[in-house]
What does this fold into?
Amino acid sequence: MKFIKGDKVKIVKGKDAGKTGKIIQIFPKERKV
It folds into this structure.
């Protein structure tokens, strides 16, 4: 699955679980968004 800047995502873990947001920055080497 590829993510693009501006995609809408739903948080599944952590203190913000269940919230939705928009990708503003992607770190491909660390595999993080």
The two ends are 13 Å apart (CA to CA). The chain has no helices and two strands. Residues 1-33 form one domain. The chain has one domain: 1-33.
